[in-house]
Amino acid sequence: MRTHDGRILGNLGLWDQHLAIKWVHDNIEAFGGDRHLVTLFGQSAGAASVSLQALYPGNRGLFKRVIAESGTALAYWSVNTEQDTDIQKFISMIGCDGNAINVYSCLRALPAKQLQISKTSNDVTKILHPVVDGDFLADAPHNIVFGNDSKSSESRDFFASLDNMTGVNSYEAASYIFGVWSNILDITDFNNFSLSRETFTKTAVTYALQNLFGIKNNATVDVLRKLLSFAYIDSEHNGDLEVNTKALIDFTNDFTFFYPAILS
Asked: Where does the Carboxylesterase type B domain start and stop, copy by copy (predicted)?
Protein backbone atom coordinates (compact mmCIF):
# COMPACT_ATOMS: atom_id res chain seq x y z
CA MET A 1 0.00 0.00 0.00
CA ARG A 2 1.09 3.62 -0.42
CA THR A 3 -0.29 7.15 -0.35
CA HIS A 4 -0.24 9.58 -3.26
CA ASP A 5 1.80 12.10 -1.29
CA GLY A 6 4.52 9.54 -0.56
CA ARG A 7 4.19 9.85 3.23
CA ILE A 8 3.46 6.15 3.45
CA LEU A 9 5.58 4.16 1.01
CA GLY A 10 4.48 0.99 -0.71
CA ASN A 11 5.59 -2.63 -0.41
CA LEU A 12 6.92 -2.40 3.15
CA GLY A 13 6.08 -6.08 3.68
CA LEU A 14 8.14 -7.05 0.64
CA TRP A 15 11.04 -4.91 1.86
CA ASP A 16 10.87 -6.69 5.24
CA GLN A 17 11.00 -10.04 3.43
CA HIS A 18 14.01 -8.85 1.44
CA LEU A 19 15.85 -8.02 4.66
CA ALA A 20 15.00 -11.46 6.07
CA ILE A 21 16.32 -13.10 2.90
CA LYS A 22 19.53 -11.07 3.15
CA TRP A 23 19.92 -12.16 6.78
CA VAL A 24 19.59 -15.81 5.78
CA HIS A 25 22.16 -15.35 3.03
CA ASP A 26 24.61 -13.68 5.41
CA ASN A 27 24.16 -16.18 8.26
CA ILE A 28 23.10 -19.55 6.83
CA GLU A 29 26.60 -20.98 6.76
CA ALA A 30 26.71 -20.71 10.55
CA PHE A 31 23.82 -23.20 10.54
CA GLY A 32 25.47 -25.59 8.09
CA GLY A 33 23.79 -24.20 4.99
CA ASP A 34 25.14 -23.05 1.64
CA ARG A 35 24.51 -19.38 0.86
CA HIS A 36 24.73 -20.16 -2.84
CA LEU A 37 21.88 -22.69 -2.76
CA VAL A 38 19.14 -20.86 -0.87
CA THR A 39 15.58 -21.75 -1.93
CA LEU A 40 12.53 -19.59 -1.19
CA PHE A 41 9.24 -21.40 -0.60
CA GLY A 42 5.79 -19.91 -0.12
CA GLN A 43 2.14 -21.01 -0.15
CA SER A 44 -0.86 -18.94 -1.28
CA ALA A 45 -0.05 -15.30 -0.38
CA GLY A 46 3.42 -16.57 0.53
CA ALA A 47 3.73 -18.03 -2.97
CA ALA A 48 2.92 -14.64 -4.46
CA SER A 49 5.49 -13.10 -2.10
CA VAL A 50 8.37 -15.36 -3.12
CA SER A 51 7.44 -14.82 -6.78
CA LEU A 52 7.54 -11.06 -6.26
CA GLN A 53 10.93 -11.41 -4.57
CA ALA A 54 12.07 -13.16 -7.74
CA LEU A 55 11.20 -9.99 -9.67
CA TYR A 56 13.31 -7.68 -7.50
CA PRO A 57 16.88 -7.49 -8.88
CA GLY A 58 18.13 -6.27 -5.50
CA ASN A 59 17.86 -9.93 -4.44
CA ARG A 60 20.44 -11.03 -6.99
CA GLY A 61 22.90 -13.43 -5.35
CA LEU A 62 20.74 -13.93 -2.24
CA PHE A 63 18.88 -17.05 -3.42
CA LYS A 64 18.95 -19.48 -6.34
CA ARG A 65 15.54 -21.18 -6.46
CA VAL A 66 11.88 -20.35 -5.86
CA ILE A 67 9.01 -22.74 -5.08
CA ALA A 68 5.57 -21.12 -5.29
CA GLU A 69 2.67 -23.31 -4.16
CA SER A 70 -0.85 -22.11 -4.98
CA GLY A 71 -0.01 -18.60 -6.05
CA THR A 72 2.34 -16.56 -8.23
CA ALA A 73 3.15 -12.94 -8.92
CA LEU A 74 1.09 -13.29 -12.11
CA ALA A 75 -2.15 -14.02 -10.23
CA TYR A 76 -4.74 -11.24 -10.50
CA TRP A 77 -4.82 -10.91 -6.71
CA SER A 78 -1.07 -10.65 -6.07
CA VAL A 79 -0.55 -6.97 -6.91
CA ASN A 80 -2.77 -3.91 -7.01
CA THR A 81 -2.02 -2.42 -10.41
CA GLU A 82 -4.59 0.36 -10.16
CA GLN A 83 -3.32 3.92 -9.93
CA ASP A 84 -5.63 4.85 -7.06
CA THR A 85 -3.92 3.23 -4.10
CA ASP A 86 -4.48 5.97 -1.56
CA ILE A 87 -5.23 4.47 1.87
CA GLN A 88 -7.21 7.35 3.34
CA LYS A 89 -10.26 5.12 3.75
CA PHE A 90 -8.23 2.54 5.62
CA ILE A 91 -6.62 5.15 7.86
CA SER A 92 -10.01 6.60 8.75
CA MET A 93 -11.53 3.15 9.31
CA ILE A 94 -8.95 2.16 11.91
CA GLY A 95 -9.27 5.40 13.83
CA CYS A 96 -6.45 7.58 12.51
CA ASP A 97 -7.11 10.87 10.80
CA GLY A 98 -5.35 10.93 7.45
CA ASN A 99 -4.92 14.69 7.80
CA ALA A 100 -3.23 14.41 11.18
CA ILE A 101 0.17 16.05 11.54
CA ASN A 102 1.83 12.72 12.34
CA VAL A 103 -0.24 9.84 10.98
CA TYR A 104 2.77 7.57 11.48
CA SER A 105 2.62 8.02 15.24
CA CYS A 106 -1.08 7.25 15.21
CA LEU A 107 -0.62 4.04 13.21
CA ARG A 108 2.31 2.86 15.31
CA ALA A 109 0.42 3.43 18.55
CA LEU A 110 -2.48 1.17 17.54
CA PRO A 111 -2.63 -2.45 18.74
CA ALA A 112 -2.22 -5.06 15.99
CA LYS A 113 -5.84 -6.19 16.31
CA GLN A 114 -7.10 -2.72 15.38
CA LEU A 115 -4.97 -2.74 12.24
CA GLN A 116 -6.66 -5.90 11.00
CA ILE A 117 -9.57 -5.65 8.59
CA SER A 118 -12.44 -7.98 7.89
CA LYS A 119 -12.10 -10.03 4.70
CA THR A 120 -15.48 -8.69 3.68
CA SER A 121 -13.99 -5.22 3.21
CA ASN A 122 -12.80 -6.02 -0.33
CA ASP A 123 -12.72 -2.37 -1.35
CA VAL A 124 -10.24 -1.67 1.44
CA THR A 125 -8.13 -4.83 1.52
CA LYS A 126 -7.26 -4.47 -2.16
CA ILE A 127 -5.27 -1.31 -1.51
CA LEU A 128 -3.17 -3.17 1.06
CA HIS A 129 -1.74 -5.43 -1.63
CA PRO A 130 1.75 -4.86 -3.08
CA VAL A 131 1.89 -2.07 -5.64
CA VAL A 132 3.94 -1.17 -8.69
CA ASP A 133 6.14 1.47 -7.12
CA GLY A 134 8.95 1.73 -9.68
CA ASP A 135 11.37 0.69 -6.95
CA PHE A 136 10.77 -2.81 -5.64
CA LEU A 137 8.48 -3.55 -8.60
CA ALA A 138 9.70 -1.82 -11.74
CA ASP A 139 6.46 -2.66 -13.53
CA ALA A 140 3.42 -4.92 -13.26
CA PRO A 141 4.61 -8.56 -12.92
CA HIS A 142 3.07 -9.60 -16.23
CA ASN A 143 4.87 -6.75 -18.02
CA ILE A 144 8.17 -7.69 -16.39
CA VAL A 145 7.98 -11.37 -17.31
CA PHE A 146 6.56 -11.03 -20.82
CA GLY A 147 7.46 -7.48 -21.80
CA ASN A 148 10.56 -5.92 -23.29
CA ASP A 149 10.58 -2.47 -21.68
CA SER A 150 14.07 -1.37 -20.74
CA LYS A 151 12.88 -0.09 -17.35
CA SER A 152 12.14 -3.68 -16.28
CA SER A 153 14.97 -5.46 -18.10
CA GLU A 154 17.04 -5.93 -14.94
CA SER A 155 14.04 -7.46 -13.14
CA ARG A 156 13.32 -9.71 -16.12
CA ASP A 157 16.92 -10.90 -16.35
CA PHE A 158 17.02 -11.70 -12.64
CA PHE A 159 13.76 -13.66 -12.85
CA ALA A 160 15.09 -15.65 -15.82
CA SER A 161 18.28 -16.52 -13.93
CA LEU A 162 16.41 -18.37 -11.17
CA ASP A 163 15.10 -21.92 -10.97
CA ASN A 164 11.33 -21.72 -10.53
CA MET A 165 8.82 -24.39 -9.53
CA THR A 166 5.09 -23.69 -9.29
CA GLY A 167 2.40 -26.01 -7.95
CA VAL A 168 -1.37 -26.07 -7.44
CA ASN A 169 -3.95 -28.29 -5.74
CA SER A 170 -7.07 -29.69 -7.41
CA TYR A 171 -9.51 -28.25 -4.87
CA GLU A 172 -7.49 -25.21 -3.86
CA ALA A 173 -10.41 -22.84 -4.39
CA ALA A 174 -12.85 -24.81 -2.22
CA SER A 175 -12.05 -22.43 0.63
CA TYR A 176 -13.25 -19.55 -1.57
CA ILE A 177 -16.80 -20.78 -1.07
CA PHE A 178 -16.43 -19.60 2.53
CA GLY A 179 -14.03 -16.72 2.16
CA VAL A 180 -15.14 -15.06 -1.09
CA TRP A 181 -18.30 -16.42 -2.68
CA SER A 182 -20.27 -16.50 0.59
CA ASN A 183 -20.77 -12.72 0.44
CA ILE A 184 -21.26 -12.48 -3.30
CA LEU A 185 -23.77 -15.33 -3.44
CA ASP A 186 -25.28 -14.57 -0.02
CA ILE A 187 -24.49 -18.03 1.37
CA THR A 188 -25.58 -18.46 5.00
CA ASP A 189 -25.98 -22.24 5.39
CA PHE A 190 -22.74 -23.96 4.45
CA ASN A 191 -23.93 -27.38 5.64
CA ASN A 192 -26.63 -27.46 2.97
CA PHE A 193 -25.01 -25.31 0.31
CA SER A 194 -25.71 -26.12 -3.33
CA LEU A 195 -25.65 -24.06 -6.48
CA SER A 196 -27.97 -23.77 -9.44
CA ARG A 197 -26.64 -23.40 -12.97
CA GLU A 198 -28.41 -20.05 -13.26
CA THR A 199 -26.66 -18.69 -10.15
CA PHE A 200 -23.31 -20.00 -11.36
CA THR A 201 -23.75 -18.37 -14.77
CA LYS A 202 -25.58 -15.15 -14.06
CA THR A 203 -24.09 -14.27 -10.68
CA ALA A 204 -20.71 -15.96 -10.08
CA VAL A 205 -19.33 -15.90 -13.62
CA THR A 206 -20.66 -12.41 -14.29
CA TYR A 207 -19.06 -11.10 -11.08
CA ALA A 208 -15.68 -12.62 -12.01
CA LEU A 209 -15.75 -11.25 -15.55
CA GLN A 210 -16.75 -7.73 -14.51
CA ASN A 211 -14.89 -7.28 -11.22
CA LEU A 212 -11.84 -9.54 -11.51
CA PHE A 213 -11.12 -9.39 -15.23
CA GLY A 214 -12.42 -5.85 -15.66
CA ILE A 215 -14.69 -6.63 -18.63
CA LYS A 216 -17.32 -3.88 -18.70
CA ASN A 217 -18.95 -4.44 -22.10
CA ASN A 218 -22.27 -6.17 -21.36
CA ALA A 219 -22.43 -7.94 -24.73
CA THR A 220 -18.95 -9.41 -24.19
CA VAL A 221 -19.86 -10.53 -20.67
CA ASP A 222 -23.03 -12.18 -21.96
CA VAL A 223 -21.17 -14.19 -24.59
CA LEU A 224 -18.37 -15.23 -22.25
CA ARG A 225 -20.63 -16.34 -19.41
CA LYS A 226 -22.56 -18.60 -21.80
CA LEU A 227 -19.31 -20.12 -23.05
CA LEU A 228 -18.01 -20.62 -19.51
CA SER A 229 -21.28 -22.18 -18.38
CA PHE A 230 -21.05 -24.62 -21.30
CA ALA A 231 -17.37 -25.35 -20.56
CA TYR A 232 -17.73 -26.00 -16.84
CA ILE A 233 -21.14 -27.68 -16.59
CA ASP A 234 -21.86 -30.89 -18.46
CA SER A 235 -25.20 -30.46 -20.28
CA GLU A 236 -26.24 -33.94 -19.15
CA HIS A 237 -25.90 -32.95 -15.51
CA ASN A 238 -26.85 -29.28 -15.57
CA GLY A 239 -29.61 -29.91 -13.05
CA ASP A 240 -27.26 -31.51 -10.54
CA LEU A 241 -26.63 -28.97 -7.77
CA GLU A 242 -23.40 -30.70 -6.66
CA VAL A 243 -22.06 -30.60 -10.21
CA ASN A 244 -22.79 -26.88 -10.36
CA THR A 245 -21.02 -26.32 -7.04
CA LYS A 246 -17.97 -28.20 -8.29
CA ALA A 247 -18.10 -26.07 -11.43
CA LEU A 248 -17.77 -22.96 -9.27
CA ILE A 249 -14.74 -24.45 -7.50
CA ASP A 250 -13.12 -25.50 -10.80
CA PHE A 251 -13.83 -22.11 -12.38
CA THR A 252 -12.34 -20.29 -9.38
CA ASN A 253 -9.36 -22.67 -9.35
CA ASP A 254 -8.59 -21.97 -12.98
CA PHE A 255 -8.53 -18.19 -12.94
CA THR A 256 -7.14 -17.82 -9.41
CA PHE A 257 -4.41 -20.49 -9.32
CA PHE A 258 -4.11 -22.73 -12.40
CA TYR A 259 -3.85 -20.10 -15.14
CA PRO A 260 -1.25 -17.98 -13.26
CA ALA A 261 0.76 -21.16 -12.56
CA ILE A 262 0.75 -22.08 -16.26
CA LEU A 263 1.86 -18.54 -17.17
CA SER A 264 4.73 -18.79 -14.70
From this structure: 2-262
